[in-house]
Amino acid sequence: MARFPYDEFAKGYLTELLSSIGNIDSSRKLATEIKEIDIYYTLNSQGVVDEQRKEVLGLLGRFATSSGIFEPFRNAATPDEIRSYANKLFDIFADINRKAKNEKRKVIQTELPRLWVLSPTASKALLKGFSATLDEGWMQGVYFCGENWKTVIVVIHKLPRTPETLWLRVLGRGKVWEQAVAEVQALGADNPLRSVAMNLLGNLKATLKVKQDRNKEDEKYLMQLSPIYERDLAEATERGLQQGVQQGQCIVVENLLTARFGSLDPELMAIVQPIVDLPASEYSNLLLQLANLSREELLARFNSGN
Length: 306
Description:
The chain is built from 14 helices and seven strands. By secondary structure, it is of the alpha/beta class. It has a domain at 1-172. It has a seven-stranded mixed β-sheet with strand order 1-2-3-4-7-6-5, with helices on both faces. The longest helix is centred in the N-terminal third of the chain and has 24 residues, at 79-102. The protein is globular and about 65 Å long. It comes from Dulcicalothrix desertica PCC 7102.
């Protein structure tokens, strides 16, 4: 699986999008032993999906017409990783069956969630090893492992480049990711998911900026995200949404401080607003210098009134 910061982005991104049409149980713990599932999706209390919201999510909305586990991978998923998450899926099946037995009823197959493995790429050998094949009625890139397995491998880089696949392609890598981000940026301001995606991409940019061991891919992503995020802030300011911009800046600063120091205690929280209130040039310079500042240096600057 991906590691911080990309896995945190993917988890937050899918949680925000899927919660628009259903419920998310984040880091659900299984009763059988101490295991966690990052994104466990279920339908709302009425057990129905809003068709209009489903349409906005495209292919991801189609996935969300029934309960499921969503596992995004930064790198190509390996057989061991897929088996590990399938094991969690089977533990959930056991929990559902135990509950049904206690209630003296039979389990309906539609109650059982699917495992959606979201992998940027996948080899032919991996797909063959899991007997994963294209299913009639589904597009290229969506491979089903057999109905009783309740597992689907979604190969993001094989998805057609259409509006329907956009929200999944944002979880891709390289050129697929770059194209998807450009498409999100080009969406109209009235799109209900554009601001959600851009805020989360802005948070990813902020986190990458203070990452100590950035690689070439991190640097490339930073270069693409920086002008997009700055342009969005400028546009928001021009529309007179200064309050919203400041709230967004506070979130960015909080994320930066958390990434730099591990957590936000009351002392660090107290300097978030003063940082946001700095003149634009000082604010930008401070964010750039943050990776090299110690906690003591940062607190001393604001506690001394400078």
